[in-house]
Amino acid sequence: MQAATAHEGLIVCVARLLAGLHHVAVGASSPIPAAGAMLVRAQDEIAGREPLRISILGSEEHNFFTNGGVELFDCAAQGRIDAFFLGGGQIDGQGNINLVGSGEYPRTDVRWPGSFGSSFMYFVVPRVILFREEHSPRVFVERVDFVSAPGTSAANVERRGGPHALLTGMALFSFDKARARFRLESVHPGFTAKDVGAATGFEYDAPASVPQTAESDAGTLTLLRGRVRRELAESYPQFASTLPEWREAA
Amino acid sequence: MALTSLDDLVAAIPPGAMLAVPTDYSGVAMAATAALVRRGTDNLHLICVPASGMQADILVGDGLVATLETSAVTLGEAGGAPRFQAAARDASIRLIEATCPAIHAALLAAQKGVPFMPIRGIIGSDVLAHRADWKVIDNPFAADDPIVIVPALSPDIALFHAPEADRFGNVRIGRRRELATMAYAAKTTLVTVERISDTSLLADERDAAGVLPALYVSQIAIARRGAWPLGLWGEYPADGAEIARYAQMARTPEGFRAYMDAFVQRARAA
Questions:
Q1: Which of B106, B131, B151 is a domain's end point?
Q2: Tens digit of pLDDT for each residue in A70-116?
């Protein structure tokens, strides 16, 4: 079987981060997080577990909300969403994220769309997975230019959520809330811990020997290239067509 | 109910109005936006509920927006919103940065007739730091529990597009409840629709819950494919190629102007 592509590797990483959860919400233009969630759902069903519930925002098919745009936020406020994905034009070593722009606000040099719901979701969703495929010093900075949402909060600020992991095209980090610091957990195939260091603008912890991100097994890849790819094509046809396909023998 | 023409509908929006518009997938009144551009209604305080795309980019690009209050502006798959980005860089508009649930909360306060609404999160963000109108208070019901409050937001006008209204002025909004929230909170609600139904949308108990009663609706105009090039739920998908064409042309002021000339003409023909 063909080895996992870089995107497939990321999808399998996402799935590992979502294992055992009940409900995950995914943004409208987030095919890799959505594919990871669909992979977990398929694995749950095959194992006879209660399948992961997935809400894809902006989708008519994979969105069961009936109370308008506010329901996602209400649902999260009630503690009914276990995991959510956030990105950002800049992410710093304390887990602060910037979705607004680089340079001195408000006259930003580069303007990004805006904070969306991040200033809220980062506080209320227990497992926020920071996902940014581009791993470069311009993204992973020492200090963000604008804090759309802070990585950690003072002890008296009500907060059950925050960064759980940072997944990039190069590596996977965990986040230590007490120390407000990332820890390099593994490096994806094709990269070294040294590559990660050179491409990261903030300091982080790392074990003496950094493991390689675990390879995807054949069963997982079969599921991904068959059922998940088909499900994904409903919402993200263009992205799905770029993934390898596996068809059952007739 | 006042069934009116598209031009008369947008004439109800005065210069300087606080105008609330919904997000791309909710039902954006794009034909009315073209009519607004043609009319040149300026100095607007545009409130995106809670984010916007091509509509906000067009209004900003045409110089009609003095203040933009939003959680985000993006063209989605077509990329960044070019005129919004340029206006942010040049500081040619007053930008009021928000976060989606805070906009919903502020409208909800107006809906309930209360002066403010508390909301979790946000503390420690630069969104809060730049909002003189949002405050952090101590939860009066618990010790040492700071919480953000946002003031009630009552827009002068809510403007959106929906599949149908009936001749009594009731409007089908389906599950897009944020359209009802906007209408409850706004002083005036203007709606464009694909068609007018002869029978009351409230007649069938099974889908009456998805209807905004005429009580909250000021004026309605027919605008076929009135959300184009954006999509309308249950009716037609977004025209991705057209939005991408806009994204490309709007990169320069000249390209934007050329796009708008045709856009306004096409809207007139519709």
A1: B151
A2: 999 999 999 999 999 999 999 999 999 999 999 999 888 999 999 99
| Residue of B191, B182, B257 lying closest to B218 (CA atoms) | B191
Same domain? B30 vs B144: no
CA-based nearest residue to A79, from A155, A173, A158, A16: A158
Q: And the tokens for B95?
A: 């930008």
Residue B107 lies inside a defined structural domain of this protein: no
ipTM for the predicted complex comes to 0.96
- The residue range of the domain holding A167 is 6-85+117-134+159-240
Q: Which amino acid is at B124?
A: G
pLDDT at position B268 over 70: no
- Report how many domains make up chain B: 2
Q: Which of B77, B84, B125 to mutate to test the interface with A (most CBs of A within 10 A)?
A: B125
Q: Which domain holds residue B128?
A: 116-151
**Pairwise CA distance, residues A94 & B225, whole Å:** 47
> Is the CB of residue B108 less than 8 Å away from at least one CB of chain A?
yes
Q: Is A61 helix (H, G, I), strand (E, B) or coil?
A: coil
Number of domain units in chain A: 1
How far is the C-alpha of B199 from the C-alpha of B189, rounded, in Å? 22
